[in-house]
Amino acid sequence: MSMLTPPGMGGQYKITGDKYPRMRPARRRGRLALAGVACAAVLGALGWGTLQLIDVFTGGGAASAAGAAADCRVAPARASASPAAVAVPKPAQVTVNVLNATTRKGLAQQTADELKKRGFRIGDVGNAPAEFDKKVAGSGVLLGPTAALKGSLPVLGTQLPAAERRTDAARKGATVDLIIGDGFKGLAKQADADAALVRLTAPQPTPAAKKKDC
């Protein structure tokens, strides 16, 4: 036995020459190396998963931000497509009864004469029926059948814009009434009425809204 061999040790721990005995098996180093590789793999997977989550919640990172910025740019306003002309009758196709619900005499005839000059057909001219007589505080009431709501009444309304419009479902025919009220001060100026009629039959297109800045 060599003098370097501790007492009581021999066999595989016998020291010969100038080498020292290995006190623990070499395979533990392999286990430690394998554990280190496994830890590195786990940490890498966790890091990659974190990056993916950040990408999801931020909408794709820089690329998404660039796309959002492009979407937020203000687009030039463009006119919308021109709507089709509204199919309404011409004044010559509208028959109007002019009825006076005020105490002012001759008002119905004066108004009827002016409407006739503007191309309307005139029906009855006289005093308003009891349900309206002295009961119209505004400038007037335009009354007609339900079918006139989008036809004759808007055309007649260009001559008296402030008048109230009403329909009677039980009413027959296409004739409409202009019932003059206490607030009546005359028909609209003819130039204004003609312009309103043009807008009614051929409305102008409206500009499209611009995108908002982000």
| Count of individual beta strands | 5
Assign a percent range to the helix content: 25-40%
Share of β-strand residues: 5-15%
Helix/strand order, N-terminal first: HHEHEEHEEH
Tell me the overall shape: rod-shaped
Which regions have little confidence, pLDDT < 50, spanning 5+ residues? none
Alpha plus pi helix count? 5
Structural account:
With 214 residues, this protein is α/β, with parallel strands linked by helices. The chain has five helices and five strands; from the N terminus they run ααβαββαββα. The chain has helices at residues 27-57, 61-71, 107-117, 152-157, 190-201, and strands spanning 95-100, 121-127, 140-145, 164-168, 176-180. Strands 2-1-5-3-4 form a five-stranded mixed sheet. The two termini are 89 Å apart. The mean pLDDT is 78.
